Automatic annotation (TrEMBL):
It comes from [Candida] subhashii. This is Trafficking protein particle complex III-specific subunit 85. Residues 109-124 have a biased composition (Polar residues). Residues 101-124, 595-623 are annotated as: Disordered. It comes from the Eukaryota. Coiled coil: none annotated. InterPro entries: TRAPP_III_complex_Trs85.
Length: 703
């Protein structure tokens, strides 16, 4: 029995891997390439906007695609998808971030809690307050504006039709939209490397561009003053060459140009055949332009939709061009990107991680910590600073980052890349190892981030599906579950929440951590049928999020706009879903929930029985057991219905589409019957359910 309905936690887990823990590839195309795509596709979009949706190869795939990944234990696994994220080049990302901060400064919102830019305090153990400046002047900012997220969800709630997200369930689609925007970000920070570009793709036109233009682009890119924590030597540089195969000798000239690039620039290249003549007569397919977009990008797109009659959310591409892009990106990932990441991981493991794990390294680390004075020559090395205790450290307390060549920064990148390649157990052990060094250096932003990733990598490893679906994963024993809950999840969440909110003043980072952990805990409860272990944690964290959002929106929105909150309604729904799937039944008895209830009815009794036999007599006035009497006390349907009622209240006040209210009423039908004609106490006209029943009758839509 699929009750109550909602977003499957495993789908949320997949979206987490697609939108957050996936490789970021930066793109830089020449002006000639942009013009060529615009002329062929009859659009004003840039090359980046056209290629960006195809990074999600779970959605835009090719037949029988397989991505082979070899982990550090030399075990080969095949995966059906390996999504990547396309973004502008790193200099452009940094300039956009700097421009957005400057505009916020001009509006005087630096001290407002609704501003995406906040000062940080308590990062330097030797100072009370410092400015969180990184190399090249980048600043720690909020992941998103909470007010913008609320405005975005209000717009989506009024415009999203039922089943628009592909699940066929409007409630699931709205929550999935909320989750995607919550975890999607392209912000560059030092303490996590998921948004550091792994690859840089230069796209040029075979007919109008030449080797000198490509060389100049590469030289200008390498001469940029990158942040001190970003290692450009780890970047995979690749070239895409756009050509038209219908032009005579185009393929021959392409091979010559590729050989020239390989010999003179030592770079690999890939040809993309984009034909202008055949594209005009072919049938077209529709591609979404909102894949992996941030909240601010979507708000800008909504403004353009109002002007352009909703034409900026999708693009029609000829089938030949669509097939070419899919196949070439598949080859790029399999032949270049994954091997590059695997080679770097093996290199860092041999040269940095394994020596650090050795007993000799630990002994010399302790020797340097206790016996090295501040006048040591190590203090003159790049990125080396003096701690308050007088020892040397690779952590820069003024800029709050580790230098790009330091072991601490390299090991953090090693753990992040291992997580991207789905080697979750190895990633967890690496995070746990480096966490001690961050704590000793009092690098609080690194400590909070690595504590979050310890939880995430551990839960991802526990919920990883077997390659053979018929093999059911073994349920962790009670000692393992107790350690996960009490020794890892609870203390780490408390510490990172305090660090992000109190030390760094970055509340949105703690919000994102809570949402991610909640979904992974729900996924673990579903996989092993152990909701009784983590349901109290899920409830506590969701209530904490609701209180935080309520306090922020009340202070930032006007009194009229703060009467309701879509964010609160969505979180109330998730609480209802969590309690609705809180099962205290064993696996053997769980099948009772999937069987229709049955009890004897008066009109089905046989009349050929002996009336004198008192044992077969049925009292017509006797009450019959409830439908789910055998599971009473083993489910949490009543508390689930309570949270759904609170969500209903928010949706009714918002005046959003009636389909969302219908969805929620379906999730409380086991406790409250609104289809019957009987006048019950909870359907009084002055109560919430009475108002909903009146609304249903007026619209004349069966619930």
């Amino acid at each position: 029995m699929d009750y109550p309905k909602g977003l499957d936690p495993y789908i949320a887990r997949q979206h987490l891997l697609h939108h957050t823990f996936s490789p970021l590839i930066s793109i830089q195309a020449t002006h000639n390439v942009d013009q060529y795509f615009q002329s062929v596709l009859s659009t004003q979009l840039s090359t980046l906007q056209i290629l960006k949706p195809y990074g999600n190869n779970a959605k835009y795939n090719i037949p029988s695609q397989q991505f082979k990944i070899i982990n550090t234990q030399l075990i080969t696994k095949n995966y059906a998808s390996f999504p990547i994220r396309f973004e502008p080049s790193l200099p452009e990302l940094l300039s956009i971030s700097h421009a957005s901060r400057s505009s916020e400064d001009n509006r005087g919102r630096l001290t407002s809690s609704s501003s995406p830019v906040l000062p940080s305090a308590g990062l330097n153990p030797s100072h009370n307050t410092v400015t969180t400046q990184f190399g090249m002047g980048t600043t720690l900012t909020q992941l998103f504006s909470i007010t913008s997220l609320e405005m975005y969800l209000r717009h989506v709630a009024k415009t999203l039709p039922p089943g628009d997200g592909g699940s066929g369930d409007r409630g699931s689609d709205i929550y999935l939209t909320f989750l995607d925007k919550f975890i999607t970000s392209n912000q560059i920070t030092s303490f996590e490397t998921f948004n550091h570009p792994i690859g840089q793709i230069f796209i040029i036109d075979l007919e109008k561009d030449n080797l000198d233009i490509l060389r100049r682009q590469i030289v200008e890119f390498r001469n940029v003053n990158f942040p001190k924590f970003f290692q450009i030597d780890d970047l995979l540089v690749h070239v895409f060459i756009i050509y038209d195969e219908t032009i005579p000798d185009s393929y021959k000239r392409l091979e010559q140009f590729q050989n020239e690039i390989r010999n003179k620039l030592s770079l690999d290249s890939t040809g993309l055949s984009i034909s202008a003549t055949t594209a005009q007569s072919e049938s077209k397919i529709t591609v979404s332009l909102i894949e992996n977009s941030t909240i601010e990008e979507d708000l800008q797109r909504f403004a353009l939709d109002d002007q352009n009659d909703n034409t900026s959310r999708q693009l029609e591409i000829p089938k030949s061009i669509d097939s070419t892009i899919r196949n070439k990106l598949y080859d790029y990932i399999n032949k270049f990107l994954i091997p590059h990441m695997q080679a770097k991981i093996r290199q860092w493991d041999d040269q940095v991680l394994q020596p650090k794990r050795s007993i000799t390294s630990r002994f010399f680390s302790a020797s340097r910590k206790f016996f090295t004075n501040s006048s040591s020559s190590d203090s003159n090395l790049p990125g080396t600073s003096i701690t308050p205790s007088g020892t040397t450290s690779h952590y820069n307390y003024e800029g709050n980052y580790y230098y790009k060549t330091s072991p601490e920064q390299t090991i953090r990148k090693l753990a992040d890349w291992s997580l991207i390649l789905k080697d979750f157990k190895y990633a967890y052990s690496t995070y746990d190892l480096i966490k001690k060094d961050y704590t000793n250096d009092r690098a609080w932003c690194y400590v909070a981030s690595v504590q979050e990733m310890c939880i995430v990598s551990l839960l991802l490893a526990q919920t990883q599906q077997n390659l053979n679906p018929s093999l059911k994963p073994p349920v962790p024993d009670k000692n393992t579950l107790r350690k996960i809950k009490h020794d890892i999840v609870e203390p780490y969440i408390d510490n990172l929440t305090y660090t992000f909110k109190s030390r760094l003043n970055l509340k949105t980072y703690s919000f994102r951590s809570l949402i991610i952990v909640i979904e992974l805990l729900l996924c673990m409860c579903q996989v092993f049928n152990i909701s009784y272990w983590f349901n109290d944690l899920i409830e506590r964290y969701l209530i904490k999020l609701i209180a935080e959002f309520q306090g922020h929106l009340t202070s930032s929105l006007s009194s009229r706009n703060s009467e309701y909150s879509i964010i609160k309604a969505i979180l109330y729904e998730r609480l209802g879903y969590s309690f609705g799937h809180c099962v205290y039944l064993s696996d053997e008895n769980l099948q009772q929930l999937h069987q229709p209830p049955s009890h004897p009815k008066l009109d089905e009794t046989t009349h050929d029985q002996d009336d004198e036999d008192e044992e077969n007599y049925i009292n017509p006035h006797k009450l019959h057991p409830g439908k789910y009497n055998s599971t009473n006390g083993l489910m949490r349907y009543r508390k689930s219905a309570l949270w759904y009622l609170l969500a209903l209240k928010e949706w009714i006040v918002s005046g959003s589409n009636y389909n969302q209210i219908r969805h929620l009423v379906e999730n409380i039908k086991l406790n409250y019957d609104l289809d019957g004609e009987d006048q019950l106490w909870y359907t009084r006209p002055d109560l919430l359910l009475g108002l909903i029943k009146t609304m249903k009758n007026s619209i004349d839509k069966p619930l």
